[in-house]
Predict the 3D structure of the following.
Amino acid sequence: MNIPDETLMAYADGELDSAARTEVEAAMHDDPQVAQRVAQHRELRARLQQEFAVELTEVVPERLLAAVRTPIPAAGSKIVDLEEARSAMAPRSWRTRSYKLSWLPVSMAASILVGVGAGFLVWRHSDSIIIQNAGDRLVASGSLARGLSNQLAGDRAPASAVEIGFSFVAKSGDYCRTFTIADAAGSGGVACRRGERWEIRVLTQPGSVGARGSEYRTASSTLSPAIVTAVEELISGEPLDRTGEIAARKRAWQAAGR
Amino acid sequence: MNTNGTAENVHEQIVALLPRLRRFARNLTRNPHDADDVLQIALERALLKLDQWHRDARLDSWMFKIVRNAWIDELRSRGRRDLIFTGAEAGDHVGDASLDREVELMSVQSAMGRLPEEQRTAVSLVLVEGLPYKEAAEVLGIPIGTLTSRLARGRDALQAMLAPPQGTAHEHP
């Protein structure tokens, strides 16, 4: 009998239709070598299943459970992309007020997003939610929140989508940090720590700040004038140095004296 | 499109899949830390496009695919270093395996780790995770014939690494 080994393998894996199965079984009956080969395929499969079964009993880390359970927006809201968010927001009353929420600005000034009012908004980056609405304000989530909490200025973890420009203490006493989003030229902003959240104070539109010489360069990143202006308004004193950042991170960015 | 009721249900189904997803991610990355990082990224991505999951499709296959894509993206951003090393190293080991006495003692896990990436993912999906060929081929985005040949080569390599020396291979207690 001349049955290809791949067919015997497929038989052992239960992948053959009944006609092919009958043929293999006849061959197994006639030829001990065929039967033995099928047995080897079955054994290997059983052995792999058994050896790897132990990994299923391990405790799943909290952060993975949280990744599934926590980023879900409040009941009734949907995860949407920017375009959808904008149209969904259109009928809201705040839009008739003076807020000018323009995510696709024609000018630099319009690219700043400050003081966003109520309304649901989510910003995706590389298929991950990095900014979402929490009640009346925007907060960082996902990789952006992790980067803000964990990364030091100028450091960029291999898998991180975020780069931290610098950190500073705001006049309110809160810690704030500038950030840029990798692979989204010029997008970035300022986030300030309030309680357990990173609130977004300023956000610049991806692509609105091109490599046209219209940006300021700092040691480790490129900041749009919008961010620089916002920092100048917020900042109290000088940006933190590395030691200051490490100390702030140690206290989970909780404002001093509270 | 998902409704709130089913969406919640799907989240819990994904939670229930986490041990398997972790195991798959480990076989994929061969590093538990990378595995958890990649899985976390994959989970975030999956939640964003839950509405793209068709309820008649297998959720595990869909998730495996997202995990694998997340890992491919990660490797790309690392400049393909790992992919290149994997191919060269594993090839060497597989060639030597049947001649090498010490392979007798090799654990299944380390034998898996020595397979080239293509074979490892095929073996992992079909033999460890128990996916049908068709599902595994879809996860990997390859024709079923390609999957079958990767699986066959992976099996042969594993058998060579795990089998006792010639002559005792057929004996079983």
